[in-house]
Amino acid sequence: MTTAEHIGGWRRGRFAHTYAAIDLGTNNCRLLIARASATGFDVVDAFSRPVRLGEGIGDRERLCEQAIDRTLDALEVCAAKIQRAGVTRSRHIATEACRRAANGADFLSAVRERVGLKLEIISAAEEARLALASCQSLIDPARPYALLVDIGGGSTEVVWVMVRARPDLPCGVELGIIDMVSIPWGVVTLTESMLCGQPRERPLENGVYDGMVGLIQDALKPFCAANSVHERAGAGEVQMIGASGTVTTMAAHHLGLRRYSRAAVDGASLARDTVLRIGAELSRMSVRELTQVPCIGHDRADLALAGGAIFEAVCRMWPVGSIRVADRGLREGVLADLMREADREADPLHARADC
Hints:
It is a single chain. This protein has about 350 residues and is of the alpha/beta class. Helices cover about 45% and strands about 20% of the residues. It has 16 helices and eleven strands. It has helices at about 5, 55-60, 65-85, 95-100, 105-115, 125-135, 185-195, 210-225, 230-235, 245-255, 260-265, 270-285, 285-290, 295-315, 330-345, 350-355; strands at about 20-25, 30-35, 40-50, 90-95, 120, 145-150, 155-165, 175-185, 240, 270, 320-325. α6 crosses α15 (about 330-345) and α12 (about 270-285) crosses α14 (about 295-315). It is globular and about 65 Å long.
């Protein structure tokens, strides 16, 4: 008997590795390094920096040099942390900005040459799958459908999910993606398209905020009609999970937090009426005033109005009583995949099946 077998497998499968996941989005570069634990994983290190990789991409369809330089600097920090932690399994992904950019592939080649990291551009469908995987434990098995809303920098993904109670599974639910939609409006692209030139010291003119809400609703109407989402939500069959900086920031604001706390926000619930009330309050504020709001501050103020409009559009469109807040995303979904893969490779039955 080997030592690993003697200690019950705690040095085999998922427990034999240190994992890393990078999520390079339109606005942020995020890294998570973790090791498996009995209840999921323990964070070894984490990093997040707003790099605005997708700055101006709506007009040029290219990543600009300044954004590339900012992002390469952030990825160099990530690479150093990965090396220092002794990571043995990793996956690094890029999303909407690189999907849309004509020079996206050239940028990833530059990342590999300068930083030594291999990033892959994933599809919107893969992005939706990873986001759903990270939120599985927040889904109520008692409601047969779920909407996962992920508001990004360059796009917003909405996933329509069938939910089935499965007490034999770790989270008690079995999930199946029925449909998903990715609309080309995130907090960065909507801000640049609708709020370009808006003075920071002045609130929006009448109709501008409602115009952003209407734009998002129009983009989502075909998806809504194809899946009868409004009717099922009205019948009380639908739950909603919100996964994004916009949703977590609004939850922190509602909770009255002076400083952001993931422990307080992740898994919290926001009543639909609360979202609409807070959205109305923030929509009357200037960007300069928003910088003074706790948990928004200077980092998020420029994008807060667009984010609020997207979130409000979703809540107005579908009459779901409350939204479950998820401070988790693609990185957690990637880590879950990597750990399951390590378990399969360590399973003797799986190894024999591959022979």
